[in-house]
């Protein structure tokens, strides 16, 4: 098997054992990029010679962190000091930040190699879409705004990549691309150096091809309570299936994925129960959109004042508050979100984890859309951790995933649960890897 087909956890073991070098892994990833990226178009910046030089340097050093020698893709709205950060904006082509974003600095210090920058929706907020296409069917979107990161991991061009989520920009691309993704608890990972849209919702996350991959990065970020977790088993779990107040917007593939995941878990011995959220949770999607637009106005006001009509109309609309979001509307949205956070956390006396849709269905056709985040925004504004797991292939032969959700700051527990439920839910993982490698 070519090294690029190894997931991050397997590659890390081989690097520690010295049966694989970072240079060999990076060269394999670069070959895969050369083979596939002309059609997938996941990357905005790749410098092969620089990547190989970084890898050789890492191979000279002792293993000093959980990510040593592993290539990492960085969404192109997260600052990198040694690579351009363009935000997919015509206003910032060639822009070179003075220093790395906080999340980039953390993974570098834990041994990761920044392979390149991945395409994104403009400012991860609106405006221009990424050029990236879904690697499973090039006529379909890979989702967004973490478009390039999701597609790059799914295409075996890199084992790991950063995404971000304000509405559904991380979990939804994980579903559309058939990969794993962790959106941590809001505030658990520094957002310094990532383009601001909505401080109340913006969250840094990461993609991998297994739960073990996600856990490696969680170790690097020292997520709370990682070392304090006790092993769990599927048979000991109480799983609450939550269709959410937006179930009417679920397409048949999403309905099938949720039912299939629940059935597989039940057959494996988990206790399955239904969770119907209180009626007020039905207003969370609108609250998330209100807060994003309301906080997005101040975030893009400097851009408007500096660039005027050169700024995309969507951001000018935010900065000018053309939707007339009032202070009262903002307060109402803040208060609803705060109330629902406490209510949701308290529900976990009766079960261990929530199982819920990741997206309305298969990835839509066309690059004019990245899909709807109606099954994500409510969880984002509640600040809870979400972990995406592949589940089924829909009628268009595109992936459809599910997500598991826990209360705030239960990231470590969620990873432990994911480690035992993912092999039950994602029965096609081995077939995917074998097919790609073969």
Please tell me about this protein's structure.
The protein starts with 7 loop residues before the first helix and ends with a helix. Strands 1-3-2-4-6-5-10-11-9-7-8 form an eleven-stranded mixed sheet, sandwiched between helices. The chain has helices at 8-17, 22-40, 48-60, 102-109, 147-154, 171-177, 211-220, 252-267, 284-307, 313-319, 327-346, 377-381, 411-425, 429-437; strands spanning 43-46, 71-75, 113-118, 160-165, 180-183, 203-208, 238-241, 271-274, 353-357, 386-393, 399-405. The chain is an alpha/beta fold. 39% of the residues lie in helices and 13% in strands. It is globular. α5 (147-154) runs parallel beside α6 and α7 packs antiparallel against α13 (411-425). It has two domains: 23-275 and 346-437, Amidase signature (AS) enzymes; 279-342, no CATH class. The protein has 14 helices and eleven strands.
SSE blueprint and pairings:
Blueprint: H1 8-17, H2 22-40, E1 43-46, H3 48-60, E2 71-75, H4 102-109, E3 113-118, H5 147-154, E4 160-165, H6 171-177, E5 180-183, E6 203-208, H7 211-220, E7 238-241, H8 252-267, E8 271-274, H9 284-307, H10 313-319, H11 327-346, E9 353-357, H12 377-381, E10 386-393, E11 399-405, H13 411-425, H14 429-437
Parallel strand pairs: 2-3, 2-4, 7-8, 7-9
Antiparallel strand pairs: 1-3, 4-6, 5-6, 5-10, 9-11, 10-11
Q: What low-confidence regions span 5 or more consecutive residues with pLDDT below 50?
A: none
Q: Nearest-angstrom radius of gyration? A: 20 Å
Shape summary: globular
Number of domains: 2
Major sheet description: 11 strands, mixed
CATH domain fold name of the largest domain: Amidase signature (AS) enzymes
Q: Which architecture of the largest domain per CATH? A: Alpha-Beta Complex
Helical residues, percent: 25-40%
DSSP E strands, number: 11
Provide the succession of SSEs: HHEHEHEHEHEEHEHEHHHEHEEHH
Number of alpha- plus pi-helical segments: 14
Task: Tell me the structural class.
Answer: alpha/beta
**Name of the top-level CATH class of the largest domain:** Alpha Beta
